[in-house]
Design goal:
By secondary structure, this protein is mainly beta. The protein is built from no helices and eleven strands. The strands form two sheets. Strands 2, 4, 5, 6, 9, 10 and 11 form a seven-stranded mixed beta sheet that branches. 32% of the residues are buried.
Length: 117
Amino acid sequence: VQLQASGGGLVPPGGSLRLSCAASGLSLDGWHIGWFRQAPGKEREGLSCISNAGALDARFPISRDIAKNVVYLVLNNLRDDDTGVYYCAATRLMGPCRTVGADYDYWGQGTQVTVSS
């Protein structure tokens, strides 16, 4: 299983980005995919997740394209404190997904998001 996160970059406050998590070695139909953030000096934070049971209702909308095996996270109205490395992760747990890092077995390499004017 491999996960490739992309789409990060430098964006001004109030801006938007769409992150992508391309999965290989698994089918999204049957796996939970979560997005997490590691901000400087802070603990890792769960942002959202999606599974066959649905998507978590969170600040940043999450969606998936099963045919392309890609999960998206749309970062809207970004603030300075949204700066960090964004990771996607996968697990085969059943039921509704959670943004608990310990639930996830496979992690991507992360993509840097910097919010600054």
